[in-house]
Amino acid sequence: MKRVGFLTALCGLVLIAAVGGNPRYLEELCVGGGAGDPVDGGADIEADGDFVTDGGISAAGDVSAGEDGTSDHSVSVTAGAGYGASLGLFESDANHGGEILFDGATDTLRIGTRDGSATMADALQIGQGSAHVAISGDLAVNGGDVNSSQDTLRLNPDGSGRLECLGASGKLRLCNDAVAQTSQEFRMWNDANALTMYGGIYCTIADSTAGSEDGRFALALREGGSLKYDRLQLDSSGNMTIPGDMTVTGADISSSSDPFSIKPGSAGYMDIWGAGGKLRLYRKAVADASLAFYMWNSSDSSAPFGELFFVNDVSTDGSEDGKFSLCLMSDGAMGYNRLVVDSGGKGTFLGDVAANGGEVSAGKDGVARGTLTVWDGAGGNAPGCVRLASPNGTEWYVFAEDDGTLKVCSALPTQNSDGNAVGGQAD
């Protein structure tokens, strides 16, 4: 059988060699025992050009498949169930190069390289029937976008995966931080020192009072050569905590429902600047003071020229009532309690009161009786008085003697004998 096959192959070669201007044709050619021979195997060349062999094919030159541009063409590598089918792109020693392997044992398409070993190091893995791609190492995108329209882009889900975005001024890294309870973090480096991180934004898991795990957002910044954590914190309820000062240069701060706290439990403050100076809202550090407004002018920001503050005023029944106080700068010193309003609505002025355009009334008609009190001064020679102006502008002082006699005097009275009794009263 082998002899017949050899002679047939020899004749075929002779006939093939005769191809030229007058080619001779050989319908079919069988080499060895023919393809599928159970003893020796072999190869068949069919009349339609198909080539079937039981052995390997080696080409010292190029191998191409397909020529017709209007039809689909393919190269297939088939292995038995549970085995691997691969396409190797190797150097001469087969231990260096690349490989595409479908692993029948795990039903996974693997793409990787060989570097001095007969075993491939995986770079990509795709599960059979899946559109997900697993990347074993780092991923570098040097000129395009990474889009994920539906599914998740995962970076080493079981370890400390990271994604880095490089730019002219440094790099931004998205990573899974290795510190306790940190789930995801952005870290930032500048281009001058790629080993020193100058900022980080991260989300952590914060245990709530109810025992559930709530998210918390925090900002870290480099200061004095070391990274300072929690420069800003935002919890799952929307509360924001800033350990330092906050400056708002061009927008409003609004809190529609929850409190806006500035360093609770301590001397926190908020400055509001304007063209004429600044207004400071803060907790005053004196006894019983709860909240104060300080006012500065633009020419001297070191000394305030006014202050409004609220204090706790212990009333006669032992309860704590609120009290409002106005203080003003006078001759370089703060004059306190120039105006005090208590919780009952009573206002007390430390100085004079002038009404330059209307009436002054006390009480309410049919509801509350009004009383005008004009107290005497110190020393027993300064009676309280009411100053009235006549139609020609002459000023007259009305006062009461110690015995109740109502008198009028053209000058500020200093004793009982000044002035004249009003009406028919006996002096």
Could you explain the architecture of this structure?
The N terminus is likely disordered. This protein folds into 5 domains: 55 residues, no CATH class; 49 residues, no CATH class; 84 residues, no CATH class; 88 residues, no CATH class; 57 residues, no CATH class. A 7-stranded antiparallel β-sheet has the order 9-10-11-12-13-14-15, with no helix packed on it. It has a 7-stranded antiparallel β-sheet with strand order 16-17-18-19-20-21-22, with no helix packed on it. It has a 5-stranded antiparallel β-sheet with strand order 4-5-6-7-8, with no helix packed on it. The chain has 427 residues and is mainly beta.
Descriptors for this entry?
single chain; mainly beta; 5 domains; 40% strand
Question: In a few lines, what is going on in this structure?
Answer:
This protein has one helix at 2-17, and strands at 29-32, 42-45, 51-53, 84-90, 96-103, 108-115, 121-127, 133-135, 162-167, 170-175, 182-190, 197-207, 213-223, 226-235, 240-241, 269-274, 277-282, 289-297, 306-314, 320-330, 333-342, 347-349, 385-389, 395-400, 406-409, 420-421. The chain has 427 residues and is mainly β.
